[in-house]
Amino acid sequence: MSHNSQNQGKLHFLFHLLSLFVRLLVKIQILSKQKSKIFIFYKFPKDIQNFINFQKQLANQMSETDKLAQQPRTIEVPLLQSTLNRLGIDKNSENWRQQVRTFRQSKDQKFPAMKNDTLLRVVKREKIDHLPIWVMRQAGRYLPEFREVRKVWSFFELCDNPLLAAEVTLQPLERFPMDAGIIFSDILVVPKVMGMEVIMEEKRGPVFPQPLVEPSDLEKLSIPDPEALGDVYDALYLFRQAVEGKVTTIGFAGAPWTLMSYMIEGGGSKMFSKVKKWIFKWKEESKKLLNMISDVLIEYISKQIEGGAQIIQLFDSWAGELGNEDYQEFGLSYCVRVATEVKKRHPQTPIIMFAKGNHSDMVFKHDCFDCVGIDYAWDLSLAAKYSQQYNKVIQGNLDPGVLLAEKDTIREKTRKMIDVVGVDRYIVNLGHGMWPEHDLEHLAVFVDETHKYSALKLK
Ligand SMILES: O=C(O)CCc1c2[nH]c(c1CC(=O)O)Cc1[nH]c(c(CC(=O)O)c1CCC(=O)O)Cc1[nH]c(c(CC(=O)O)c1CCC(=O)O)Cc1[nH]c(c(CCC(=O)O)c1CC(=O)O)C2
User: ipTM higher than 0.90?
Assistant: First the structure.
């Protein structure tokens, strides 16, 4: 081979390498889209591995969004349409988001009068003719109409679109005579606006590709403008307009400890070892993070109320991962702070505190919570006793698994719960959320038995 052609070969090889590198850069740029991050590999090779995992996850996410975006996607909102007509909002116009926002932020914002305020009446200890019922995750994958919407829109696209979020919140109410609707969103929209990437992986749930690893990572977080979550308030506004007073509108948020756990564990967890390392090794930094999250939640929840939420539920889904003393220090005290601050601004809006797994007894002792959510593993008769002692409403706690049983079993278990708690300070609910495999008819039986049996007892 001549010297010349050898050089040419080398040049060709170098050119090939360069073009591969450029293509890789372009691909990274496309994958990370609007984020256009610059990656610095400061701790080779751990960061290389993190980087590769992150790109893989982004690719998964993109493939879902890309796949969905290939279809013609017009916003279909059959249940919301008459409300949009009434308000004069055109979903096909380019500025429908601004139109909704202007309505929501208007000073003389007005909502239709309440026709069924049974749930709020229970909290105020006013006369009712049946016990109120709603179920956690009542809008979601167990509903065929929700699954249809999800064929076209990704999970976070739903959360970020007030028209679609309000529409799917309305869906279960077409089928079941619930007494409330909880706005369709997720607890993880909060870490997202604080600057963390969250993606929804099929069969795995939400994942943070770059969780917080050590205290210096707190610098990556920011306190957002509360309007960064404006889509949620807009969805609440539209939903409350659409239900025309037939049900109570519920807003919600994840509690600081549960959100912190997600942000550090990077997703669901078995051991909670990473977040436990933080609270026991980096106590002050952990408290800094918990306070940051609490600051965001105070604004977020207040704005939900101003948007239309009539009652708020705080989800401390992972409360049970801590012992009493630690839950008091790293969990409950922050929920108390959030609820107390929100109450200062909105004293009329009740707050339901749902500490899943173990700590409901501690929740009863705090004045800032109006209602205590009881999970399925808790003893309902003990909760009923505390409810008398601390003069609080309770909510819960049918095991979601019971909805898989025969209809007679569902009726029997429902009556038993009502017998245990009584009919004066009780919101009937599941002890945790609906499952994708739940049968629609079985949920209908739960709702029907609650209404009929409690109405008989209230006569
Ligand atoms: O286990 C995990 O780590 C992830 C759990 C998970 C979350 N969002 C998620 C998933 C995936 C999934 O449910 O399969 C993802 C998620 N959030 C939601 C849905 C809808 C559905 O369940 O079919 C889904 C499924 C997503 C999909 O459509 O593919 C919506 C949601 N999350 C939530 C709510 C509030 C409520 O429960 O009523 C609501 C909206 C209300 C409604 O659907 O009617 C609250 C939520 N999200 C989340 C948690 C943390 C606790 C937990 O582990 O379940 C909690 C609080 C709780 O339920 O205790 C995180």
Answer: yes
Going from the Cα of 132 to the center of ligand 1, the distance in angstroms, rounded, reads 22
- Of 367, 411, 355, 360, residue with least CA distance to 386: 360
For the annotated catalytic residues, the residue numbers are: 137, 141, 150, 186, 262
Count of C-beta atoms within a 10 Å radius of residue 201: 14
Determine whether the shortest distance from the Cβ of 315 to ligand 1 is under 6 A.
yes
Task: Determine the average pLDDT of the residues in 256-269.
Answer: 96
Return the SS3 of 209: coil
Of 436, 442, 368, whose CA–CA distance to 137 is shortest?
436
Is the pTM higher than 0.90?
no
Residue with CA closest to ligand 1 atom 52:
317
For ligand 1, atom 15, the nearest C-alpha belongs to: 205
For the cut 70, the answer to whether the pLDDT of residue 291 exceeds it is: yes
pLDDT tens, position by position, 139-184: 999 999 999 999 999 999 999 999 999 999 999 999 999 999 999 9
Residue ranges of domains in the chain: 41-70, 106-458
CATH class of 106-458: alpha beta
The best mutation among 155, 184, 186 to test binding of ligand 1, ranked by most ligand atoms within 8 Å of the C-beta, falls on 186
Nearest alpha-carbon partner for 140 in 80, 185, 205: 185
The overall longest dimension of the chain from CA atoms, in Å, is 104
Q: Tokens in use for 345?
A: 């601004």
Among 135, 257, 265, 315, residue to substitute to test ligand 1 (most atoms within 8 Å of Cβ): 315
Closest ligand 1 atom, residue 142 Cα: 23
Whole-number pLDDT of residue 109: 82
Contact 449, 441 (CB under 8 A): no
